[in-house]
Amino acid sequence: MSPSKQQRQRQLARARYERQQARRHHHNRRRRRRQVIAIVTVGAILAAIGLGWAAHLMSGPTAKTVATPTPSTSTPPALVAGPAAAVVPGCKDTTISLDANPPTFAQPAQVLKPGTAAKATLTTNCGAIAFTLDTASAPKASNAFAFLSGKGYYDDTPCHRLTTAGLFILQCGDPTGTGTGAVGYALPDENLPKGGKANYPAGTVAMAEGASGKAGAQFFIVYKDTALPANYTIFGQVTQGLDVVKKVAAAGTGTGADGAPKQAVVISSATVATS
57 burial class (0-12, 13-18, 19+ CB within 10 angstroms)? Predict the structure, then answer.
């Protein structure tokens, strides 16, 4: 083969190679462009889905918030905490209802004259608890309890606190179920005991301190002899149902020696009768 013919063949081969490389390069560019387009498209779709889901979450139901208790003269609908199954024989399943904004009152009007024989009855899902009111030694506390009972203040409220070591009490009388509810007035100290090993004996009913640090509506029932600072007005003595409190106490709190009773106790009604 002549040199000129060999040179011509090399030139043709070179041209063919360059065309192949050009076609390969063009193909690769198109493939990369399709990949980029696909990635961008998928990203846009995912972003749209994400925005749609976010919009769904933002427009969907939100958690119910509980308002801070404020003075009020009317009772709004109760906030239902939920059903509570009985864990103690003799108690019934119940629903714990909490009122985030219970009514408040000025100093209670006089409904019990000092020295009047009066008996209070708490109807609960675990049985009745009755106690006499000491209207002679604690006239203001007894009157306040009778006044609030007549207003339905204690109806459908939980006993929110149980203590089982050192002191032995079941505390009730706060519609919020938190122990921080305030009724709007403060009672003076009355009928305070002396100090001692059992200055609050079993069966004692005494005023507890609310959010104001003063007695108002909350009260506690002592189910076993207890020593306390002599700061809590004694205004009643249990005559029926101390066994109810004891069996609730025996079930404990489930969270230690001081907390909500494991056996939920709900007062369905509180009444005061005179004789």
Answer: exposed
